[in-house]
Amino acid sequence: MANLTIDSSRIYNFDVIKQTLPIKNVSSINEYQIPEERMPKVVDQGDYECCVACTISEILSVFAKVNNDEFEDYSISYIYGKHRDTSSTSTGMLVESALNSLLKLGSVPYEMFPKLMEMPTVKETVNKRVDLDKFAEQSKIKGYCQIRWSNVAQKIENMKLALMNYQIPILAVSKKGFAGGSHCIMVY
User: Fold this and answer.
1) Which of 24, 107, 119, 188 is 20 to 30 A off residue 80, Cα-Cα?
2) SS3 for 28-52, per residue?
3) How far apart, in whole angstroms, are the C-alpha atoms of residue 70 and residue 25?
4) Which of 146, 164, 185 minimizes the C-alpha distance to 59?
5) Nearest to 160 by CA among 12, 19, 26, 35
6) Cα(162)–Cα(106) distance, integer angstroms
7) Which long-range contacts link 113-116 to residues 24+ away (Cβ below 8 Å)?
8) pLDDT in tens, 110-131
9) Who contacts 17 (Cβ-Cβ below 8 Å, separation ≥6)?
10) What is the maximum alpha-carbon separation in the chain?
11) What is the dihedral of CA 76, 79, 85, 89, to 10 degrees?
12) Residues near 30 by beta carbon (within 8 Å), at least 6 away in sequence
């Protein structure tokens, strides 16, 4: 498989990226799962509204596995408190805002900031721990692709292409199927 890397900090258009991928046709694929060694943990967010942070944390762990051949558990709370709109103190996160922030800083190992807290406490606590930012620098993302299509069949085809070529989980927002409304999940 070709070395699939993103070389600059920006948002990529998946329609352009997919032209360069080794696997180009997945129309006959009806079932697929990423390799077992790249499977993320499933995290229970409990009573906290941090599904975006949980998903990002686990995908960062998979990146660590792919790059270093070992899992690194990342702090959900650091992500939840650090990577949100600066004026936001309500619960939950916006995916796009969090991903844009992750272009500047990643997360820290779970052991450095383990306690899960809700807004606004987690934001205040993380902001007091600027010493952690130098560690978060090491896991910042280099870029990401958005797969946005109103055509559901085309969206699913693009997701299959991404899964089969990159073999890592995809962050997705499910707007239906969960009692509380939209929910951030991993597709693998």
Assistant:
1) 188
2) CCCCCCCCHHHCCCCCCCCCCCCHH
3) 31
4) 185
5) 26
6) 22
7) 113/75, 113/77, 113/78, 114/75, 114/77, 115/77, 116/45, 116/46, 116/48, 116/50, 116/76, 116/77, 116/80
8) 999 998 998 889 999 999 999 9
9) 145
10) 52
11) 40
12) none
- Examine the pLDDT at 139 and tell me if it is beyond 60: yes
* Structure token pair of residue 184: 């951030």
What's the token pair of residue 82? 């650090």
Residue 61's SS3 state is helix
Q: Which residue has the tokens 């989980």?
A: 169
**Cα dihedral 62/66/67/72 (nearest 10):** 30
pLDDT digits (tens, 9 = 90+) for 47-90: 888 999 999 999 999 989 888 867 789 999 999 999 987 777 67
